[in-house]
Amino acid sequence: ALLEIVDTVGARTGHAHDLYMRDGDGFVLLYSVDSEASFEAVRPLRERLGRLRGPRAIPLVLVATKADRDAERQVLSARGRALAREWRCPFLEITAKSKLMVDQVFTQIVREMEALAPAEAQVPDVPPSAQETWPSNDIENYHCLSF
Ligand SMILES: Nc1nc2c(ncn2[C@@H]2O[C@H](COP(=O)(O)OP(=O)(O)OP(=O)(O)O)[C@@H](O)[C@H]2O)c(=O)[nH]1
Ligand SMILES: [Mg+2]
């Protein structure tokens, strides 16, 4: 099994970024709890993702980072939870200081990709035997994008 992670460095606009959003298999949208602006930036990203992908399912996890900076908090947990409920995706509030929490982000996005992918695999050409073992044997070539 291979999981390729693409991290958008800095820029969240442009042609290359649009291609990653169009072709990725899973998406981790992050904001920082200490930055209202970062929270306000995730909705436009989700909307652009929807436009670029058309009717395809969008395996997505919403992640709030820097939970350790509670004294500087600008975004209440409830707001992240509410947004994730609206988008029907998992929500995690984490600190990068915890390996366990960071691991949970990857666990969640893989789970979402597995949960949403079978619906797309219901094409007539796929033999039933292949569907039975799918997707556990076929996580290869998943491309997960974080931004
Ligand atoms: N306290 C704290 N600092 C963090 C956490 N996560 C990241 N940082 C710090 O925040 C700064 C920015 O982190 P990055 O991971 O580079 O943020 P980014 O969103 O990837 O930034 P770009 O790639 O430039 O878009 C760095 O100084 C990190 O050390 C966290 O959970 N807690
Ligand atoms: Mg970065």
Automatic annotation (TrEMBL):
It comes from Loxodonta africana (African elephant). GO terms for cellular component: membrane. InterPro entries: P-loop_NTPase, Small_GTPase, Small_GTPase_Ras-type. Keywords: GTP-binding, Nucleotide-binding. GO terms for molecular function: GTP binding; GTPase activity. This is Uncharacterized protein. Pfam families: Ras (PF00071). GO terms for biological process: signal transduction. It comes from the Eukaryota.
